[in-house]
Every structure is written in structure tokens, then in C-alpha cells.
Amino acid sequence: MTWNLKSSYLDFLCKIVGRTYEYSQLLTFLHGVEFYSLVHNDENRLKDGEHLRENYIDEVGPTRAPSLPNGPCTVLEMLIGLAFRLEFDLSGGEYERPAADWFWVLVDNVGLTFYDDYILKVRPEIHPEMGKIVLNLLDRRYDSDGNGGLFPLKNPRQDQKQVEIWYQMSAWIIENYPI
Predict the structure, then answer these.
(1) Would you list the domain boundaries of the chain?
(2) Which residue has the higher pLDDT, 15 or 5?
(3) What are residue 88's phi and psi, to 5 degrees?
(4) Contact, 49 vs 80, CB < 8 A?
(5) How would DSSP label each residue in 12-30?
(6) Neighbours of 78 (CB within 10 A)
(7) What sign results for the dihedral spanned by CA atoms 61, 67, 72, 74?
(8) pLDDT digits over 112-147, tens only?
(9) What is the rounded CA–CA span in Å between residue 154 and residue 19?
(10) Which of 61, 73, 116, 149 would be 142's cystine partner, CB 3.0–4.6 Å?
């Protein structure tokens, strides 16, 4: 048996978020798109995603994965890293949830939960729509209130397209999960 690092690592990521029976094509797609930042300090989210690679090595061991997966951080990695941040920030309170749940909240916020394996099978012509949604997220072509982005707000204090993801998340937490 040949060890396939890329599929093994993708399997690792999918195991974190679950629902692969329903969203394997979306997860694979997100793992094939490079995350890039346009706003200062969003590269920290890139680092959060890349940190998952170290977790992968810890899980499978260095002999099964002689080197970390290389290449830029993917959108899937960034979203999972952000989900772990949400899990940590909201731990210990009434809004505590595992990272997997937060991941799917983020996917829903962006508008990607529609693109499950069933709909992509029966309507293959909509595949490009997923790409457009992700590109709008990366290029910050969502509404100024964050609608279409990761953290839509009812009452934003500034144009969310100009705000670092970390501060978008903080404002969204404050607005939706008051302590």
C-alpha cells in the first residue's frame, strides 16, 4: 500500500469537521483553494491553518508523514483554524461548542451549506457558484455589514471589508453571543 500524504491529510482535516458523508466535494474543493489575505494581520489566520499540519504530524507520527504537507494554507485549513479559535474563545460558557460545530457555522455564514454532495451531483452546473462564493470571501467582495463573509453583523461600526478577520470575529461574538 502506498501512503498518500495529501489524501491522508485531507482525511485528517475532514475528520475534524465531520459531515464528510454529506459534504465531501465541498471540503475537497475548499482544500484546493489557497487562502490569501488582503487586510493587514489576516496572515495570522493563515498561520492558524498551517498549524493544523503540525497537529497532523502529531497524530500520525513522523514515520507515517516524513514531512509536513507543503504549499500555501488552504481555505479549508484557515476555516478549521478559525473554528478552533471560536471554540477556545467561547469555551466555558453557555455558547460553548466544539470546533466542528463552529466550522459549519462559518460555512453557513458564507453561504456554502447549500452545496452538499447531493446538489452537486444532480446539478453539476452549479459547481462554479462555489468558487465565486469563496473568491468573494477572499477578495472581500461581501457587503459592508459582513453579509456574505464569515461574520455578518446586524449593527457594524465600520465597513467589514476593511476589518481584520480577528476583529470581525470579535464583533460577531459580542453581537451574537453576549456574555
Answers:
(1) 5-176
(2) 15
(3) -65, -50
(4) yes
(5) HHHHHH--HHHHHHHHHHH
(6) 29
(7) negative
(8) 999 999 999 999 999 999 999 999 999 999 999 999
(9) 29
(10) 149
